Amino acid sequence: MRRRRRFYVYLLASQSRVVYIGMTSDLVRRVWEHRTGVRGGFTSRYRVHRLVHFEEFADARLASARERQIKGWSRERKLRLIDSSNAQWLDLAAAWFEGHAE
Predict the structure, then answer these.
(1) Where are the strands (E) in the chain, listed by range?
(2) Which one-letter DSSP state was computed for residue 52?
(3) How are beta strands 50-57 and 7-13 bridged, if at all?
(4) What is the pTM of this model?
(5) What are φ and ψ of residue 13, in 5° steps?
(6) What is the CA radius of gyration of the chain?
(7) SS3 for 65?
(8) Alpha helices (H) along 1-102
(9) Which of 2, 14, 22, 64 has the fewest CB atoms lying closer than 10 Å?
(10) Average model confidence (pLDDT) for the chain?
């Protein structure tokens, strides 16, 4: 049986709470890319590497719409979203790469 593809909208944060919103079909790979800086850009420049919130979708269009919705929110509303699911702003992917050099 074929496994259904999943899509994720995710929020990363730096220690100083700079926030980045993205969408992917492979959350583990994409978080690893952000952490290692293989693509450079905003998350590398501002050290935005901690996964603090994510949502899973079965449909890419729904995930894309949700990503656009969150990106359109005020900073305060984005912070409230993170606080509502992860009040301590813990790195939800902290254990994913233990023992791997970054």
Answers:
(1) 7-13, 19-24, 50-57
(2) E
(3) antiparallel
(4) 0.91
(5) -140, 155
(6) 14
(7) helix
(8) 27-36, 42-45, 60-71, 75-85
(9) 2
(10) 94
